[in-house]
Amino acid sequence: MAQSAILHLEGITKQFEQAASPAVANVTLTLQRGDLLGLLGPSGCGKTTLLRIVAGFEQPQLGTVELAERLVAGAGCWVPPEQRDTGMVFQDYALFPHLNVAQNVAFGLKKSRGKTTGVSIKERSAEAIALVGLTGLEKRYPHELSGGQQQRVALARALAPRPALILLDEPLSNLDVQVRLRLRHEVRSILKETGTSAIFVTHDQEEALSISDQVGVMRQGHLEQLGTPEDIYTHPKSRFVAEFVTQANFLPAQRRGHLWETEVGLFEVGRLDTQDTSLDAGELMLREEDVSLVPDDDANVTVCDRHFLGREYRYFLETPSGKKLQVRTTLNTQILVGTRVKLSVASSSIQIFSTTAPISENTPALPSKIA
Ligand code: ADP
Ligand code: MG
User: How many other C-beta atoms can be found within 10 angstroms of the C-beta atom of residue 332?
Assistant: First the structure.
């Protein structure tokens, strides 16, 4: 493990009793100190379970968890949650309704009194409250605060004991869109300012891409891809990641020499998702924003609809086989519904995905008795 890793998971597998498949399957990842990992994936893919394993609320059947180079789970070791030096923030804030802001924040400190020697609980909670911009509201009760303010209190409560790692489980999902957009960048700045490492779970791809240093995409318990936001967006490893993270269209394609043929034309392709250079059929990915539309009476794609989105147009297209495609263009491209168009795409942005890609390599066999 690298010197600066705050978290290292090795082959983590967790299957709940009576479940047909593991909620978390063979997950290995390393988070560097000070980094923010965005954990992204559809509902039920295992994000919360993985966070709870890191926090110590769930025990994996296989694999090891190391926090700050200390083994805390697996290989015969078990460190309980209160000794793991992690903080948690939940989607529903989970504040104590009968405690005011200052008391809610101080609660986290009372639990970890050992770490606050030399500084009073009052000072430490005032500092955390200032960090999240709530100074002056210390005497308010949760019901006297907006959703965004309540979530700031939850963040302050988690930050006050200065944990090595903060785990945020969809912290912004209950907030309306304006608050969510503002708060996500504030959360990132606060974490960076305090040098706190974090895992931020979300099912919103834009949220994950815009605030994370690393993004992990989960699918059915597996960590399908881990990389920088740019990596994940420009080089998705699988069709699943491409569909989840980018807005993309897929067309069946066959290799024709150095080109790939689809029902809407021949394309030069920048990348394959496999090392298998003999691959001769697959799914060709066209991202919505990478396609230019060129009116052409001889073309076989028809513009069915056009939506004005303010900054851009979204065009709805139909191929000869009846497949629907979506494309976004600048307002300079004004094409009438009913027009036939050719699709023009830079080869560097086109990828082919092998159609039969498995979910992930291998799921290890579980011990016969599930803990
Ligand atoms: P996510 O947070 O990505 O929505 P979860 O980690 O909550 O996903 O759930 C992953 C899978 O594990 C789901 O199929 C869910 O139903 C199941 N699961 C989660 N917690 C439990 C539990 N305590 N007992 C049984 N099954 C669970
Ligand atoms: Mg969840």
Answer: 7
